[in-house]
Amino acid sequence: MKNIITINIEKAEKGMQLASDAIDKHGVCLLTTGNVLTSDSISRLNTREIKNISIYEYVAITEEQANKMIMDINKELDHSFSHLGEFPVLNDLKQVFYDFRIKELTKNNG
Amino acid sequence: MDNQQILEQVKKIPPLSPVVVEILNLINSNEEVEFIILEKMIIQDAGLTGKILSLANSSFFGMPGEIVNIKEACLLLGINTIRNLVISSAVMNRFKSDYGNNLDFNKMWKHGVCTAAAAKVYSDKLGINGDAAFISGLLHDIGKIILDYYMPDIYKQVVDYKIKEECLFYEAENLLIGTDHCKIGAMVCESWKLPNEISQVIRSHHNPVDIDSDISLTDVIIISDITSHGLGYSNIENSFIPIKDDSIFKKPGISLLLIEENLPLIEAITESYINNTQ
User: Fold this and answer.
1) B245 and A85 in contact by Cβ < 8 A?
2) Which of A30, A37, B148, B215 is the most buried (most CB within 10 A)?
3) What is the pTM of this model?
């Protein structure tokens, strides 16, 4: 599972992935969202007096937790479309959202 | 409180800050805008200046780190994007700090951002004005925020009814208060002097789809609103996708493939914008 946490720049390590742009006090973006930190980029952030950064924290989840999340997505989408009558295109649309969200969930859990 | 009293209350909603109104008047005047004058106006408001620079430099606009002052932002991003940034920052500043009666502002905001991201992507694909699409998506539900912020007791009844009767927001609103968030949102945007195109889209985003006309910005917002709900950016627990039938899919250009192919991009833009405005 992917969480976003804010850490002090002193705790930044190589390999961490930025969850938001690192912007200095003048409004200049030094590194963009999604960038993976390297020793060089960490020193650049330090030099430009960046105090905190937001990073993605990947938390491993159990199979049971993953199954529950899949069930929740299914339940949510079933409810979201439950007020509609029989429209084949809308059933397909629900499936499109379901497939995408499950794919994202799987991707974030390796 | 009846419909008329509600409309009277809405008319009393304070305008956006004088600086913002002045900026929007200048941009909307249809006259040539001198960037130096625009810059002078924007830098009167330090908060607005910081927010514009930070958003302008975010990965969302694809020019990270290149923009160091407001004049450059105007030159590189163009006047319409600057107008979007001004509106977006002004509305965020108005509500974010202390909002939250019956609705959760963070959920409302994320729903608006995802709708805006989808509107930007779809409008580019469909050849429709993307600048107005983004801000219309962002503000399409502003009427709900206004009603909940200024009339919390009345809106509690609406939210309770919507949950109990499992209907759409605008149905509960029309039944209980004789108006809805589309009309209220449009009225407020008009009083805030936002461009007419935006208030018209906000007014009509739950109207029945006119399947005989060409594709419009309203159609783009309808499909973007659906996308935002489908991706899980709903503005309330147990919500419904905000349509009653499949008529939107009868409009030229709108298809399952359009949605399916663009979901990764919409999700990425949404996540980036939310993370950079928190």
Assistant:
1) yes
2) B148
3) 0.84
